[in-house]
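#struct-pred

JT: dropping the chains for the assembly here, can someone run the whole complex?
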Amino acid sequence: MKKVTVKCPATVANLVCGFDILGMALKEPFDIMTLKLIDEPRILITNKDDYNLPTEPEKNVAGVVLLSIMEKMNKGIGFEVEIEKHIKPGSGLGSSAASAAGAAVAANFLLDSVFSNDELVQFAMNGEKLASGVKHADNITPCILGGVTLIRSIHPLDIVKLNAPDLFVTVVHPQIEVKTSDARQILRKEVLLKNAIKQWGNIAGLVAGFEKGDTDLIGRSLEDVIIEPVRSILIPGFDVIKSKSKEAGALGGGISGSGPSIFMLSKEAHTASLVETIMKETFSQLGIEYKTYITTIQKSGVELIS
Ligand code: HSE
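RK: done, full complex below.
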């Protein structure tokens, strides 16, 4: 029986100004998934963590991705799946994307790489649709391709892998719940032209900064005048962490995906660690439990480990 184990990285969607179109993969945290190919058309899911996620395939993020792959293959195959999540659901670190992308990539390994990366992103987006109600690829794509990615369009799918600089990423996950669906619902449907101009200047600057390896340009472009002013209200301590981190030398950062996690980019390990202290102090003072990571950009996506 064919069997593979994969490591599925956490991801930071949006990268501040690029709502739904930019994302990057992190070295830590990551999930582990093991898939077995079976010759019966069924899916059996086992959770090897304490998150108590549904195991019925049609209610499980990995399950719906595998169902769409089985439908496409149209032959009597199925999968046994073991999921060991370390990326907490609802953290804003691409937990659902890790399950969705992990399932798609692992299944493709088992099926002798019959599908292209674009097809894997399409399959995996079914998982995002189940988790948040909307098909978005800004976590899925960096999770599958690694590094920093741009989703120029979903219909038709047009993805671009960008250069990823060697930066440190400090992340704090305050243990409060922000549902992606809620964090999307509160957004205004219209934007002012003057804000749109600022935003697309920042997106273009950020993409150019990544491509040129210009870290100062990256820092200047990490500004969001459309989404962050609305969503940051849901995250206590956000403004303090952002301003103090920049004072301490961080390039910049913001909400990771739809939150509540916050990320900051730094050039030096020393700065990344000062930022971690600021994050810890802020949430301790607020009496909110938290978890922090100091990590880097993961250059490859979902990886085969055995
Ligand atoms: N781009 C999405 C959002 C990511 O910000 O709603 C959610 O994981």
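JT: nice. The chain has a mean pLDDT of 97. Residues 150 and 160 are 5 Å apart (CA to CA).
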